[in-house]
Amino acid sequence: MAGKGLTIALDAMGGDAAPDIVVRGAAIARERFPEANFILFGSGDRIRQLIAAEKTLANQVEFRETTTVISAEAKPSQALRTGRDSSMWRALDAVKRGEADAAVSAGNTGALMAIAKFVLRMPAGVDRPAMASIMPTSSGETVMLDLGANLECDADNLFQFAILGALFARATLATERPTVGLLNVGAEELKGSESIKAAAQKLRAYEGRLPLSFQGFVEGDDIIGGKVDVVVTDGFSGNVALKTAEGAARLFGQFLKSTFRSSPMAGLGYLLARPALRRLRDHLDPRKYNGAVFLGLNGIAVKSHGGSDAFGFANAVGVAVDMARHGFLENVRKEFERLHTDGLEDKTASL
Question: Of all residues in the chain, what percent are helix, strand and coil, respectively (each to 5)?
Answer without folding.
Answer: 50, 15, 30
